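Subject: Predicted fold for Fpg/Nei family DNA glycosylase, 288 residues

User T.R. writes:
Posting the sequence so we have a shared reference for the thread.
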Amino acid sequence: MPELPEVEALALDLRGRLDGHAIAKIHVAQFSALKTFDPPLSAMEGTLVDDVSRHGKFLDIEASGVHLVLHLARAGWVRWRDEVPTIPPKPSPKSTLALRVVLDDGAGLDVTEAGTRKSLAAYVVRDPDDVPGIASLGPDPLTDDFTVDRFREILQREGGKQLKGVLRHQGTIAGIGNAYSDEILHAARMSPFKPAGHLTDDEVQVLYDALRSTLGAAVDRSRGLAASELKGEKKSHLAVHGRTGQPCPVCGDTVREVSFADSSLQYCPTCQTGGKPLADRRMSRLLK
Ligand SMILES: [Zn+2]
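User M.O. replies:
I've generated the structure tokens; pasting them so everyone works from the same file.
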């Protein structure tokens, strides 16, 4: 799933490519992806692209006061094409194409979604805050006003909630998902199950530094990469996320996995939990 660093890089890449171009046509191939009907998609056709930006994990293409907002969800992606077919795509359950934006020079982008669980969402709005998931976003962790004091207030407010859940809850902090929350907690050497409100001032500072450096480094590495290169880039730099059974790059211990909410998380016992494996709560609940 693309998170803050990848969406930031996508926005930068597309900003350069779309700058000065008009949108000729937007084709919808997967109708369930389009969540709005007013203004219509045609409101963007024939208008110049003004900007491409990011809100949390949402990508925002703005043309003449209308915004095409995309949430790529778990398996969505944006693929740049120097030349897109001129005939409209046929909707097909076998195709991964959800949406196609055609530019005035014949280039364009395909918004795709792999897999069968279709959760990619596209919105056409006059104000990004008209998208419910954007209106409810917490602060962006890479902005200048996301200070350690602000972070401490957030953690204290969350009280007994576990760090893993707090970091990736979009209404609390914007843009961090399952992968980077694992990576940030590993960098901070903290248990994903540690209660947010119980951190000492020193621990808040450690977690804050880990958050800023992990996300900042990922954005720096992703900057300038084309959309097609971003996924591999992300994967090759993960220390624990998605690496169950492999050695921790810091200490060599085996990366472990435990279920969390609707998915699972990965962590290193030696680095993060005093060498003790975390109990799988879902499993123990099932066994009762
Ligand atoms: Zn380790």
